[in-house]
Amino acid sequence: MMATSRFFENLDALFNPETVAVIGASDNPAKLGYHVMKSLTEGGFRGTIVPVNPGAATVMGIESYPAIEGYGGSVELAVMVLPSKAVPGVMDECIRKGVRGVVLITAGFKEIDDPRGGELQADLSRVATRAELPVIGPNTFGVVNLNLSLNASFTPEFSLLRKGGVSLVSQSGGISHLMGFMAMEREVGMSKIVGLGNRLNVDFADMYSYLMSDPDTTVIALYLEGLDDPRKLMEAAKEHRGRKPVVAYKTGRAGSGDRASLSHTGSMAGRHEIYEGALKQAGILPLESAESLLDTARALAMCPLPKGSRVAILSGQAGPGMAACDLCEAHGLEVAVFQPGTQRVINDLLPPLALRTNPVDMGPAWYNALAIEGIIRAVMADEHVDGLIILMMYASANRGAPAGIAPLLLEWKQRKPVVSCFVSPQGIWDQDIRIMEGGQALVNCPSPERAALVMASLWECSKMMRYWTEEDRK
Amino acid sequence: MMATSRFFENLDALFNPETVAVIGASDNPAKLGYHVMKSLTEGGFRGTIVPVNPGAATVMGIESYPAIEGYGGSVELAVMVLPSKAVPGVMDECIRKGVRGVVLITAGFKEIDDPRGGELQADLSRVATRAELPVIGPNTFGVVNLNLSLNASFTPEFSLLRKGGVSLVSQSGGISHLMGFMAMEREVGMSKIVGLGNRLNVDFADMYSYLMSDPDTTVIALYLEGLDDPRKLMEAAKEHRGRKPVVAYKTGRAGSGDRASLSHTGSMAGRHEIYEGALKQAGILPLESAESLLDTARALAMCPLPKGSRVAILSGQAGPGMAACDLCEAHGLEVAVFQPGTQRVINDLLPPLALRTNPVDMGPAWYNALAIEGIIRAVMADEHVDGLIILMMYASANRGAPAGIAPLLLEWKQRKPVVSCFVSPQGIWDQDIRIMEGGQALVNCPSPERAALVMASLWECSKMMRYWTEEDRK
Questions:
Q1: What is the CATH number of domain B1-137?
Q2: Which residue, A332, A380, B18, B175, is most buried by CB atoms nearer than 10 A?
């Protein structure tokens, strides 16, 4: 069925509640209801938290109710952490109470061997959908909306994430946690993290449409295993293609993976190649790993898109430049041929080493901040260059290099994308990089290869978005 | 020419000196001679350091000599940080002094545009080789021997590395620094790091033979761009193939990469595919990135090799298991079919979720340490399983899981390789992982995909080594 506009208003309320009820809230750390309460209370959520547990007067010191209907105020979001058998009755209570959305963490539905799990899910889905009540899950870790400091998941540590523009919609709690922890380490700004689980009545297509209209979300990242109704996602995506960058990582290409997917969230993964083609048609860029999904989403949130495929590779040492060069050429980028004026500037600034064309080995200019600045300035302004890859490995003698070029890059404010790989022993360059990334001067990657791949993905995304924008305007 | 046995004795003395002279030592931080002195003095080298500088009575408080011949004792290693013009004269002095080996950091030889650079290098090479004097460089950052706390490089931070069995021989200083910093972060135990630079008379083939006989080196990692004499490396490698695991990463496959390689260290990179085949023939496993080179070398130093291609994937969450599954099947591993007894044990220990075959989703057993232990024990003992991939993403509720299974894995001591991906927010599982890795219970990777790739490379290496051991015995 098509989701109604009332359904989408409710979905918006689910992500932006004033009051959250936790049905199955607990003080016992051996219960998921404890961890959900911990996430909500420690995450800084400024709305009202209503524990529901017939056996407790308080949970974590907060007044508890035997049932949601016992609470006097209105409740926008109900998080359920209950045995599966209890869910239908509680769902009815939520509908009577006028709850706007449910996060159903409970497992034991479509994903289990027993056919009664599937039946239970189908029944619930009918009831919820008739009530225009969006339900995230079942069999999910929850949802997080960092813009609201709302951590409605069983993992309190998600609240450690930095606020930002990347929203992740995932079919796997494991991959969501992995991506979340990688995002913490790399200080990626996140907006929403949504574990779809078994997708009772909120699927990728619904989240896709919702996030396209969510002003806090600038980049959408999807983790897919299989889809019950691939066409529904593709239709939703096509409607919005070209509007925001969307990237996806899909597993389940292997034979055993297909079996696993069927079991895991109850749908076939299907042939990998078919999905890849369909995703691109829908304006979604397919990527090859969780690391790549995060690297790319992060860069899309921080960088302008390149207007062409021609990159300059400016390296503090030759080897990393060559590694980046290999990857660029293998992934659809061109190593730019500089304009004669640019090349003259570089030749004047570097000693007669042969590596002055692209890639440029700036090694001999380590001690000469003005030379490095001059090279970067000339290359930035070169109309034959659509993006810059800057690579530099720390050595005792070039300690000051990132701080030296930061003002220039900050001044440029990325009129073209700058993807870098500055690597030092922990602590030495961290602050310099943070300043440059914070000022949107560049996006830094942990290896030259990953920097090159990120630039290639930026270009792929740029081409795709431009193509669909123009195509759909016809 | 063939290197003589005297040449190799000298090479050994170069890596294990009692006295190191730094010719061009300086107190001025704007000189590389300062950074080399800093590396040696701060690195904990217990031999004698002899600064040589005609303009200084002391350097860093150590008595300095106007020329190496002024020093009364014997000198095994001379590190030169001089203008290129001064090198020939000083090289003669070193030979007269009976120096056993030279690390020539100075640039300005074969790598420069000016043909005089190439001539100077050729002349020097003749002189050094006639004297059976091995020279690492020119145009190198230096060499490091962690077993001796010898940091004869211009980067003092290399001394922060942990001692261990991996030796890296690299054509690029940049890649050596990158790998070194990655190794620090991941606590990889290193033996030697050697920047070959322009390879005056010590090439990959020489280092290969030397490291094969070096008892401290258990795994050899090579970073290659181009070789002047590929046949020489291949011959040396073939002589030793099957004896120690050797892995290589080669760049310069792209057209512009070839140009860059020619410039960078003066040799053509050549066709990538030809190299790949030749490397395998020589018993060297080619890899695709600096990260993969480090991941694999690290695992080879810590793990037994798998005896077959059949892996078990035990996952705390389904998604990461599927991601690993995809990569395993794409890279020559089989997802094992468990023996019936093993499957029965798993079925008894896990609730009736379909994901109990391989991959196994242990999610429902998070709270049940005995169940997880039982599954791992059964799979370990299964004769249809050659290696284990264990994946677990932290969630508040499974905090104790790694500590829970550590004793079992430590007891097993890796009769089969165990490659894991335990990921948590920083600090939570770090100590548990360190204990397991320290006790050789497993090798941990930052993502499920990289764990699967590491297992695939272990199997490739195992096959290759066994093949050549058997083949060469015929």
A1: 3.40.50.720
A2: B175
Model confidence over B42-56: pLDDT tens digits? 999 999 999 999 999
**Which residue of B273, B396, B423 is the best one to mutate when testing the A interface, meaning the one whose CB has the most A CBs within 10 A?**
B396
Q: Is the pLDDT of residue A58 over 80?
A: yes
Q: How many whole angstroms separate alpha carbon A83 and alpha carbon A33?
A: 11
ipTM of this predicted structure: 0.93
How far is residue A64 CA from its own chain's centroid?
35
> Domain B161-302, what architecture?
3-Layer(aba) Sandwich (3.40)
pLDDT tens for each residue of A415-437:
899 999 999 999 999 999 999 99
The class level of CATH for A1-138 reads alpha beta
Contact criterion met (CB < 8 Å) for B329 and A255 = yes
Domain extent listing, chain A: 1-138, 161-302, 304-464
Taking the model in full, what pTM does it have? 0.94
- How confident is the model over B275-328, as pLDDT tens digits? 888 898 899 999 999 999 999 999 999 999 999 999 999 999 999 999 999 999
pLDDT of residue A230: 80
Instruction: Tell me the shortest Cα–Cα distance from A428 to chain B, in angstroms.
Output: 10
Residue with tokens 């992982």, as numbered in its chain: B433
Got the DSSP string for B339-375? Answer: PHHHHHHHHHHS-SBSTTSSSEE-GGGTT-HHHHHHH
CA distance B180 to B193: 8
Superfamily for domain range B304-464:
Succinyl-CoA synthetase domains (3.40.50.261)
What pLDDT is recorded for position A258? 47
A251/B323 touch (CB, cutoff 8 Å), yes or no: yes
What does the buried/exposed string (b/e) look like for A70-96 if buried means 16 or more CB atoms within 10 Å of the residue's CB?
A: ebeeebbbbbbbbebeebeebbebbbe
Which residues have a Cβ under 8 Å from the Cβ of A24 and sit 6 or more positions away?
A31, A32, A33, A36, A52, A53, A80, A81, A82
Whether B352 and A175 lie within 8 Å, measured CB to CB: no
Compare CB distances from B354 to A254, A263, A424 and report the shortest one's residue.
A263
Residue A233 phi, psi dihedral angles, 5° rounding: -65, -45
Query: How many residue pairs bridge chain A and chain B with CB atoms within 8 Å of each other?
Result: 279
Mutation pick from A114, A184, A322 vs chain B, by most beta carbons of B within 10 Å, is A322
Establish if B39 touches chain A: CB-CB under 8 angstroms. yes
